[in-house]
Specification:
Length: 354
């Protein structure tokens, strides 16, 4: 049975398609490609063992790493790899569109409605693409890793979120003006509902623009509903700007989008990403395959899914190395039972209980 892919380019690049009901990546030679990768390979070269053994020769170190990976069945260098790996194995490139990752000590939400935002994104996308576009081993591009999108989680964990940041902005900011316009659009036929939830008159534009909303009851059902709908508008602009920048710089390669946490992926965000991406990327953390979470994503997206960085340490969750090996095998087996999984990338190491 041949590979079906209406969007497949007539160039020697990686693409995505279906073999019957199963999604698959497609290598430049037209063969199905199951991406089995390891992320954060750059960290290996920082170890004392590699420094002493290869005497600061990154090319030799990478050749050894690539051979080691292939011997164990891996065929892809995940994100955060030494540049020397790019001539040795297929790889993915990444760029952070906003400083909002879970691992960052300080989250910096940005006004995506600002006229300066597209220029900033265009610059970082152009830089990323210029470094890898000509490489035949390039599979595609990631955007922000582990972004904090979910409003409830962000409020619980860091006491801030993207919508709250926008509505705190002073009135001259475009984002604040867009938020005020959004409220007027949402409540044009229900000003009393707005008054009950926000404590202002809908027509009092100056008050809305001048208010920082620090006293807002964010658990109010109307406020919460509006917040997630405004989050949709933030996501729409964020992905539009990124998607258009990618189309200008390299429209042939696959887009894997943000690398989402399984429990931080609001439907509003995913729906706005879908027009711009080819594959949904997720970073699960459980030692067991979370089937319900993956099924939810696929029901919404109807696009293939790449496990872009499995951050679970099987040894941490297991009593012995043999138990960890079985847990790893069980995870891989169950993941690839799902016809939408096109690849599995994992951390470069497991941590032990000790």
């Amino acid at each position: 049975m041949g590979v079906s892919n209406k969007m497949r380019p007539k160039r020697a690049v990686y693409s995505v398609g279906q073999l019957g009901a199963r999604w698959t990546l497609i290598a430049p030679d037209g063969a199905p490609f199951v991406s089995l990768g390891v992320a954060h390979l750059a960290n290996i070269l920082k170890s004392a063992t590699f420094k002493s053994r290869y005497d600061a020769d990154p090319r030799a170190a990478c050749e050894a790493v690539a051979a080691n990976l292939r011997a164990r069945g891996f065929n892809t260098a995940g994100y955060r790899h030494p540049v020397e790996m790019r001539s040795l194995m297929p790889f993915l490139a990444e760029v952070y569109l906003a400083q909002i990752a879970y691992w960052m000590p300080r989250i910096r939400y940005v006004d995506v409605f600002s006229p300066s935002y597209p220029k900033a994104v265009n610059n970082i996308v152009r830089k990323m693409v210029s470094e890898v576009k000509a490489n035949p081993n390039l599979i595609g591009y990631y955007w922000t890793g582990t972004p904090r999108w979910d409003l409830d989680l962000a409020r619980q964990q860091i006491n801030d979120d993207w919508v709250s940041m926008i509505r705190r902005l002073p009135s001259p900011h475009v984002g604040k003006q867009r938020y005020a316009a959004f409220l007027r659009e949402q409540h044009a036929s229900s000003p009393s509902e707005f008054r009950a939830a926000y404590g202002n008159e809908l027509g009092d534009v100056d008050t809305i623009l001048g208010r920082d909303f620090s006293d807002l009851q964010m658990n109010h059902p109307i406020v919460r509903r509006n917040d997630y709908e405004f989050l949709r508008l933030i996501a729409r602009e964020y992905y539009r700007v990124a998607g258009e920048a990618m189309e200008r710089e390299d429209r042939r390669r696959l887009l894997f989008g943000d690398r989402y946490m399984l429990d931080d992926l609001p439907v509003e965000v995913l729906e706005e990403a879908l027009p711009w991406i080819d594959v949904v990327s997720v970073q699960p953390s459980g030692a067991r395959f979370e089937r319900d979470a993956f099924e939810r994503i696929y029901r919404i997206a109807r696009k293939p899914i790449l496990i872009s960085d499995h951050v679970s340490s099987f040894l941490t969750e297991s009593e012995s190395e043999s138990d960890a090996a079985r847990a790893y095998d069980d995870y891989i087996s169950e993941a690839f039972e799902r016809p939408y999984i096109v690849g599995y990338h994992r951390e470069y190491r497991d941590l032990t209980r000790r």
